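Sample intake sheet
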Amino acid sequence: MSNNSKNTTPLAIADWGLIDYLSAYERQGAMVQGQLTGDHGDTLILVEHPATVTLGRRATAADLHYPEAGYADRGIKLQKINRGGLATAHEPGQLVAYPIVALKKKDLRWFADQFLQVVINLLADYGVIGCLKDGEPGVWVDGRKICSFGIAIKKWISSHGIALNVNNSLEVFATIVPCGRPAEIVTSLSRELGHQLDMDELKSRFIEHFCTTFYYHIIAETKNELP
């Protein structure tokens, strides 16, 4: 890690592996409370989720292509959550990152821009050019959305985060109106490159970019261990 620990903040890395969305959601809430009471420090959570559609605070039935029972029939869970935004999809093979951290600047736009830049820097490692769109959360590649973004802030502690399509099939995205845009085309890093990627290597690169961008140094790493 290039950051000098004297000038950086400690960060724990928690890789929870494949975990049910609701379980991860509840654990995020507990960790935010731990931050507020001083029982937890900053933590970057990495996970993958089974097939799930999450519905942000502004989502409605218009964001879904099927009634609720239709999702259960397809083995897809529906989950209402407290982040901003509309509907998005989770599948195994995504890189999902949830920073439970105290914002170093009390500026939500700054945090969002820096976080999305982490994703852009990661894509650049693989020769893929990521772009932003004014007023729209996420990252695009040649007009195709590759990364969803949605966060919640409680007393300047963040939760939720990004879902970067890496090796996932994109099948769940076909059941929703992604982020309220019917014409949105969704892609993945493996689709752009024409081959599957080593997820462990990609996670390591992501962690490094996150630490460099937000001036952290790693103090602990756990894998498949839940709080």
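Comment: The chain has one domain: 9-223. The first helix runs from residue 21 to 37.
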